Amino acid sequence: MRRxxxxxxxxVLLVIAAALIATTVQFTSMFSGPPPWFRPTPIARVxxxxxxxxxxxxxxxxxxxxxxxxRFGRSEEQPSPDRDAAIARLIPAPGARVLGLYExxxxxxxxxxxxxxxxxxQDGDGWILVSTSPPPTFTSWHxxxxxxxxxxxxxxxxxAWLVAGRISRPxxxxxxxxxxxxxxxxxxxxxxxxxxxxxxxxAVEAMQDRIxxxxxxxxxxxxxxxxxxxxxxxxxxxxxxxxxxxxxxxxAADIDEMRAMLGAVLRFTRDDRxxxxxxxxxxxxxIESLGDDLAAAGTPVEVDLGPRVVVEGDPVALxxxxxxxxxxxxxxxDQARLCWSQSAGWAxxxxxxxxxxxxxxxxxALFAPFVRGExxxxxxTGGTGLGLAIVRSIAEAHGGEVRLENREAGGGRxxxxxxxx
Length: 421
What we know:
The protein is an alpha+beta fold.
C-alpha cells in the first residue's frame, strides 16, 4: 500500500504558499507606481505657477496661495539656493525674489522636485507661494495596497479552508464512527486521510474491537449465569413446597421475584446483543398504537396527539422502549402521559407522571443496570433496575438520547430524542 503523506506536508505547503503570495503582492504594490505621497514635480510648472499665480493645467499635487508673512514652509523642508536660482531663471525674475524650501535638496538644480516643497515669489509686500498639497488620507497607492491585501487574504482563506477541511474531514468521520460503536453494532472505521489520521484510525479500530469483545464476553457470561441459575432455582422451589404454609408463601414470593429478575437479565442481554434492521416508520402512529394497547389492558395512560414524525428504527425495540417508560411512570406516578414534537431534524417524545420525581443528582446513575432510586423507587415497588438501562440502550442504538427531568409542577419527565427525517 502506498505510504500516506504526513499531515505536516499540507500545513508546510500552506505556509510557504502564503509567504510567497504575500511577498509577491508586497513587491508588486511597492514597485508598480510612483512613491506613495508625491509625484516628482517639474520645476517648469513651479515657475509657471509663480508667474501666473494659478495652478497650471494637468498639474496635480500642488497648490498656489498668497501670504504676507516672511516665514513659510514645513519643518522637514530645507533651503536650496541653486534650485531657487534655476526657478528664477524660468519665471524669469531676479534670484533675490525667489525663496524655496525642499524636503530633498537636489544634486541637479534643474531636475524635477522630489518630495514636498514650498517655493515663494516676492510680490510687493507679500509672497506668492507654490507648495505641495497635503496628501489625502487614502491615496491611490493606499487603495492599491489595500486591494492587494484583501485579495491575498481571500486567496489564503480559501486555501486554508480547503486544507483544513481535507485534514479535519477524516477525523470527523473517525469520531462519528467511534460514537456509533456499541455492542451488536460495529460501524466501519474510515482509514482515509494523512498518515497520522490513518494510524489513529487503526488504533481506534483495535481499541474498539478489544472493548466490544470484552463487553460481548461479559454479556454472554451474564446471560449464561442467568440461564444456569434457573435449574437450581427450580430445585429450591421443589423443596420449598415441603415448608409450612406461611414460610412457603414467603419463600415462593422471593423465588418469583428471582425468576422475574433472571428473565429481565436474559431479555436485557438478548436485546443488547441482537439488533433488528431499521425501517422507516411513523413514530406518532407507533406511540398511538402502543397507548391504545396499554389502555385496553387497563394501564392508565394518556396520549396527546402530535405532528407526523418519520424515523428510521426497529418498531419492536421502540415499542419496548416506550412500554418500559410507561410502566415506570404508572408504577411510580400512578399514570402516564405521552406527547411528541419535531424540530431541527429531531423527534422528541415526553413521558410524564405524577409521582415523586427522580432523586436529585442521581438521574444519570439510574440508567446503570440494576440501579434503583431512593424512596418509592425501590425493590418494594417492583422492577429489577434494568428498565432505564434498556431504554438508553435502545435509544442510543437509534442514534438518540434519553434524559430524566423533574417537572416544576411535580412529577417526573423522561425526554427521548431520536433522529427524524
